[in-house]
Amino acid sequence: MLWVEKYRPKKLEDVVASKDILQKVTLWAKKWKPGQKPLLLAGPPGVGKTSLAVALANSLGWEVVELNASDQRNWQIIQRIVGEGAFNETISDEGEFLSSAHGRMKLIILDEVDNIHKKEDTGGEAALVRLIKRKPAQPVVLIANDPYRLSPELRRLCEMVNFRRLTKNQIVKVLEKICIAEGIKADKRALMSIAENAGGDLRAAINDLQAVAEGKDELKLEDVVVGKRTQEKDIFKVLQAIFKTKNPAVYNDAMLLDESPEDIIHWVDENLPLEYSGKDLAVAYNVLSKADIFLGRVRRRQFYRLWKYASYLMTVGVQQVKGEARRGFTRYQRPSTWQMLFQMRQRREMTKRVLEKIGRYSHMSKVKANTEMFPLVKLLLQELDTDRAARIAAFYDLSKEELEFLIGDRASEIVEYIEMHGLHRIEDETFLAEFESKVEPEKSLDEEKEIGEKSQPEGDKEVRKEGRKKTGKDLTLDSFFS
Amino acid sequence: MEDFEIWVEKYRPRTLDEVVGQDEVIQRLKGYVERKNIPHLLFSGPPGTGKTATSIALARDLFGENWRDNFIEMNASDERGIDVVRHKIKEFARTTPIGGAPFKIIFLDEADALTADAQAALRRTMEMYSRSCRFILSCNYVSRIIEPIQSRCAVFKFKPVPKEAMKRRLLEICEREKVKITEDGLEALLYISGGDFRKAINALQGAAAIGEVVDAETIYQITATARPEEIGNLIDTALKGNFMEARQLLDRLMIEYGMSGEDIVSQLFREIISSPLNEKVKVYLIDKLGEVDFRLTEGANERIQLDAYLAYLSSLAKK
Question: Full-prediction pTM beyond 0.80?
């Protein structure tokens, strides 16, 4: 049995997570009632998101239904459970419905929600959003590695809990417990080394521990060095083969790496300019950009067989371009894209939100808001006096966070001014924001009392009839077209 | 009147009479207002000529105080797909017009952003709700709207705002805002606007915010700073052959400005077109850039494609 399963925490107290996460989650569960926001557990792999959800259910005596959201085949099931909120049905391990007389609560765990295809009509993120909006009758937990790949709408519908990578000490503690349970005498340095290598991923650490320690009485430091994950070293070797040699065997080496071409291409991209220059650099980048096109096609259409072309181009393709290899040792860099990714997404997200507001209140699309209004609004917020800048901020309904993003430190001065003077959006222009919420006719319209009485929101049919009668009487549309 | 600080909002026409420079269009529309009825309308014309403003003014004139309840605005390029559009329309069309209006108005901006298939679907939607709703579609080019839709609409062509009319309006705004503008400043404003009212007013407000007197120089300055100067810097650096430095600039644009690959490409386009480079070189650069843009829409990685573009630029250095 895999140790990660064997030692999966049974109760909430056993879960390794920070106090605030535990508190937040417990509170969510305790006050749960139908219609409450689902929980979105977000964070890197192996930090205990699923474990926490399962342990939570165990602690409360809830049943667990765990489904992989990105798997199309599950969608009917998800719709049935989440959508219709079947109180009295339960699901077996094979995915069959069983009837359960006792209506225990079911915690529905949807894993990998950041991997669902956005485009699909059935299933897909839009379907998930629809499901959640229908206020499921069972508690739902969504799990995602990268919450910023979800649409803002979906994120807003959930209560997000962010998991961080675990610290070395947290991991070592768990490993120690497992060693005691397995009757293994472990050198603490060995455990430290495993923890270090795992990079905050507890699951990886436990797997590594099992690989080197299972069946032993004693775990020494030397045992671990042998079992150490050697990924990074290998990618460096591949890079060296690409940049310093002309040996096409590098294609096979790259295929054997434990990294997908999606990752390898960033390694090549990052280090290419350290090795090539001038013409070689441009030609090599041309080849690399073509490799990227194949990756794009795979991403969009799931044609994984196209990966091999990408792999070949980014290794041998780049390799063969060079006239002469640069001499001497090159210290290869980790791809900076990954470090910037998070920050970049956050800022884009913010830009998008600002553009949405500008677009909404100035009657234009986001694209147009970006080219036509955004630079001006930013400039005016910076240059005008506080009063006028604050009025603009209020006109576009910009939040403090958004103002900080746009104009930095001046934001607080403006926010203060807005609060002090009670500025707010001029309601006249909000007509397109949420018309859905305003569909009920105002009852105070005196001259329209007659219609007002008839068109209660529930009396849908009546409204329609009324509408028809009126339009039929007054309209002469045909005369315009003939 | 409300206290708007953004001038394009402050001086947005409230009634059809206030719309500037579209006399023919306005006259015909006023005929509809008198008869209290409109057919489906198709407004076409370049940006900033008053298509949206006219639609709103028309709704105000038709519906009076209740115009907001009977008017919905949608953007074909923002709403994800025709299904969303249809759903919204359905929701909106479901209820009776408010305040005795005979119909509601659905304004669909940038309708030419819809594919032909989506337009066909839209046509069916238009038919389905034509009893209770009128559509106003707006587009830049009528030719991009499928014929069945064209034939169901009364087509109105908005022209670039004539210089004289724009001049009068701009001077009016200057007076109301107590902005001092020089003769050459006004000329510059008319020149950069190309008949686009929004552009002219935005440039005027921007220029007024940074200087005491608005003259040609401040106008050109403001239209130049409207795009981050880093883009120009990025191109220069790459063309000098400093790939690494250019790449760092690129990273900064993506991180600090939150610009997407598409943003950067479209800024690069504008910058290259207006740069003092040799025209023959520009043709190569634009050709390559188009390829990058196309690849991005095909799902390629922006960082790698832009890195490749910068590498291409820096390889030109020695020539």
Answer: no
